[in-house]
Specification:
The complex is a heterodimer.
Chain A lengths: L4 E3 L2 E4 L5 E6 L6 E7 L6 E7 L2 E5 L7 E4 L6 E5 L8 E8 L5 E2 L3 E5 L1
Parallel strand pairs in A: 2-11
Antiparallel strand pairs in A: 1-3, 3-8, 4-5, 4-9, 5-6, 7-8, 9-10, 9-11
Chain B lengths: L3 E4 L2 E5 L4 E7 L3 E9 L5 E7 L2 E5 L2 E6 L4 E6 L8 E9 L5 E3 L3 E6 L1
Parallel strand pairs in B: 2-11
Antiparallel strand pairs in B: 1-3, 3-8, 4-5, 4-9, 6-7, 7-8, 9-10, 9-11
Classes of the chains: A mainly beta, B mainly beta.
Chain lengths: ~110, ~110
């Protein structure tokens, strides 16, 4: 257990539905990252927050994806109008000075 | 072409063998990370490097910035080392991270 928690751990949804994932980082960590990982691949960077500011977004993050970190603590990642291609593991990581600590991930299955 | 390439993709070793996993990257970086991912999906950060060499227990990581290459070595490998090892680099210009596809290591008793 790295101290980073993610909820839910698993989510099954129908195509077209909206889903929201939550990440609670290690409390003193000011940096928070979201990644997506599909089977057999390495994680892909989605977005990065420093405190409450979203400083970087990957081009992978289409307009159906939005992430927030309103108070600089927990973060949410929302996917609107889910598609089957969104099925993946969504990973969150936090850091203070460089080393990233990963959460257990939320596994999304879109039917 | 991926910004980060790892080799080999799969590796099977006998317990006790010395293991090397290689990582090459094509972008300017501020740091390189080696990560370990277990079958359940959990990811653990092993090393963060910006130059030289680091050692932690039986694990050694090296980086050559000029050649844009890093290696992860495992000495006296053990079945519990079986996992996927992922190389990731942090871009020099910002906070983009690029990941390799991982090396799946199996250590046989």
């Amino acid at each position: 257990d790295t101290g980073v928690s993610q909820n839910p751990r698993h989510k099954i949804t129908k195509r077209g539905q909206n889903v929201t994932f939550r990440c609670d980082p290690i409390s003193e960590h000011n940096r928070l990252y979201w990644y997506r990982q599909t089977l057999g691949q390495g994680p892909e960077f989605l977005t990065y927050f420093q405190n409450e500011a979203q400083l970087e977004k990957s081009r992978l993050l289409s307009d159906r994806f939005s992430a927030e970190r309103p108070k600089g603590s927990f973060s949410t990642l929302e996917i609107q109008r889910t598609e089957q291609g969104d099925s993946a593991m969504y990973l969150c990581a936090s850091s203070l000075s460089g080393t990233q600590y990963f959460g257990p991930g939320t596994r999304l299955l879109v039917l | 072409k991926n910004e980060v390439e790892q080799s080999p993709q799969n590796l099977t070793a006998q317990e006790g063998e010395f293991i090397t996993i290689n990582c090459s990257y094509s972008v300017g970086i501020s740091a390189l990370h080696w990560l370990q991912q277990h079958p359940g999906g959990g990811i653990v950060s092993l090393f963060m490097l910006s130059s030289g060499k680091k050692k932690h227990g039986r694990l050694i990581a090296t980086i050559n910035i000029q050649e844009k290459h890093s290696s992860l070595h495992i000495t006296a490998s053990h079945p519990r080392d079986s996992a996927v090892y992922i190389c990731a680099v942090r871009s020099k210009t910002g906070n983009q991270f690029y990941f390799g596809t991982g090396t799946s290591l199996t250590v046989i008793p």
